[in-house]
Amino acid sequence: MNFKQTAQADFKDTSNVVIGFVGKEEDALSPLPTDLASQVSQWRTAKWVSPKEGSVTPLLRGEGSPVMLIGVGDTLHLTENKLKKAATAIASVLKQSQQKSVTVLLDNLKVRDRTQNWVVTKLVEWTLTGAYNYDTTKSEKNTQYTTEHFLLAGDGEFEEAIRHGKALAHGVNVARELGNLPPNICTPTYLAEQAISLADRYSPIHTEILEEAEMEELGMGAFMAVSKGSDQPGKMIIMHYKGAGDDVKPHVLVGKGLTFDTGGISLKPAAKMDEMKYDMCGAASVFGTMSTLAELQPKINVVAIVAAAENMPSARATRPGDVVTSMSGKTVEILNTDAEGRLVLCDALTYAERYKPQSVVNMATLTGAIVVGLGHHPIGLYSNDEGLQKDLVAAGQKAWDRAWPMPLWDDYREEMESPYADLRNIGQGPAGGSITAAIYLSEFTKDYTWAHLDIAGAAWTSAKSGATGRPVGLLTEYLLSKVG
Ligand code: BES
Ligand code: MN
Ligand code: ZN
Fold this sequence. Notes:
By secondary structure, this protein is of the alpha/beta class. The protein is 33% helix and 21% strand.
């Protein structure tokens, strides 16, 4: 689909669907030709046109373009969430329409404290993510939208905003697709193949894969403690995005890529265990962000590390009480094999030191506790650096993919002490479970500026609704803010 700006909508072309917006307030209506506007005002009084949020009213006309009015609630001055709902409604029109082009009327459509370029970027992104539906492993495929041209009618220069929105949507949909794939298909090996094909497709990306033998050699005993219980070989996947000179230090992204988390010997209960296929959504967000970067080609360097493994119970699996040595040299008493994300991550985080990074941000569906604490809307944000924390909050605000700061106080540190090792892999109890997990990670990230995003609540909301593709938006805006 081709996105373009146009000054004026064509209301005559019958192969073009015009989409406008309507709210409850008297003047909350997109600009329409006078005859249509007066007709609509009568229909509004008769309640044939619904201003209800997300509703779509087709206007019956004798001739000319079909017109659809999307309800936005009160006024055309929207909130971010209302714009998202409107974009989802546009996507539903796209899915049904057989017409060649769609024109969206931008005039009067505003979001408080946001520029028109922001509105265009998000409208494009959310329309394209709204049009995504998983069907890869279904025999019956979803009908593909056939619209060729997507026109944005309004004054301004939107070319850059459109490009940005398309690239974001692409990355978000890449992350959602990986998250939604079943765990018998999306294995660590599958993820490694995706990284190789990303490098084949985009010249600024290069991929290296560390196999288990190499990880053993590097001393990644924490990663191996998780991976060795599975017949699926674990992989440490490293992707380099090169947009700047060799002397420019990279920003590093690290993703938790548990393609399935049974809990291991500390087995999880059966209910909703299927949802643990989403335990690679941190990794999925890394793939999504790299795809977006490859399209936007900003002048920065990024290294992405995905710690991909499967957590299974088996005769070779780690026992509660085992002590292992991580790559950092620190020994860890594994008291619960279900706290495996921090084990694969701590070795990936130690590995990241070699890049002398400007910053390291890791994404992980790390704890059920963050879902209890924050629900499904914000991402839990932990950082050892105030500046980085501010940057990430701002990036999340810009992307409308928001993160909320959590404490990394040393008060929690003594919970992680073990009589048998340098530290244990769980706190003393469930209290503050997301925080103690972050404290564990912080023991391995003392040498650089670091943040941890606990995305267990944000990466998916239910098996039915599927993966959200978060935090591709936040990460993209963060990295773009570092172009200099
Ligand atoms: N992948 C889970 C976290 C999770 C649980 C995400 C439920 C989303 C929904 C993680 O590996 C895990 O099992 N964490 C444990 C840690 C505990 C054993 C200290 C948890 O949160 O229960
Ligand atoms: Mn677990
Ligand atoms: Zn897990």
